[in-house]
Design brief:
With 151 residues, the protein is of the alpha/beta class. Helix content is 48%, strand content 15%.
Length: 151
């Protein structure tokens, strides 16, 4: 897995740009779906682009950045099969991959400093799902998605 998809709204533009540089320096192929300026835009549209391409199997992992990471997380988690986690520390980023099989990391540019943001990204991408006892719980989440998609 050396490919990752990333997007942001205007509130996450600066942080996204630095994350892309960081990932590329680590050998990742990064697909940037915008936004490409600090002009106001709607974060649900960006989340939809990232999540749709993960749902389609083109990417395994994505990163979304907005002012707090919360809006992106809410929008991303409306997509079936997406397990987005808004993280502001490395422990949570590591554990959400290992225990929740999270496939989208959400970050806040206004809430997490640059150095910490890059450490969080590293913790997220360097870990993988442990499965076993955690699979039962992730499967339960999937069942909730299926139940709610039919209503």
């Amino acid at each position: 897995m050396n490919r990752i998809i990333i997007g942001c709204d205007h509130g996450g533009f600066i942080r996204k740009s630095e994350i892309i540089k960081h990932l590329e320096s680590r050998g990742f192929q990064v697909t940037d779906v915008g936004t490409y300026t600090q002009q106001s835009c709607d974060y649900p549209e960006i989340a939809k682009q990232v999540c749709g391409r993960i749902q389609g199997g083109e990417f395994e992992l994505g990163i979304l950045v907005c002012g707090t990471g919360i809006g992106m997380s809410i929008a991303a988690n409306k997509h079936n099969g997406i397990r987005a986690a808004c993280c502001s520390d490395t422990f949570s980023a590591r554990m959400t991959r290992m225990h929740n099989n999270a496939n989208v990391l959400c970050l806040g540019e206004r809430t997490v400093g640059m150095g910490l943001a890059l450490d969080i990204v590293d913790a997220f991408i360097e870990n993988s799902f442990e499965g076993e006892r955690h699979q039962r719980r992730v499967s339960m989440i999937h069942e909730i998605e299926k139940e709610n998609s039919s209503t």
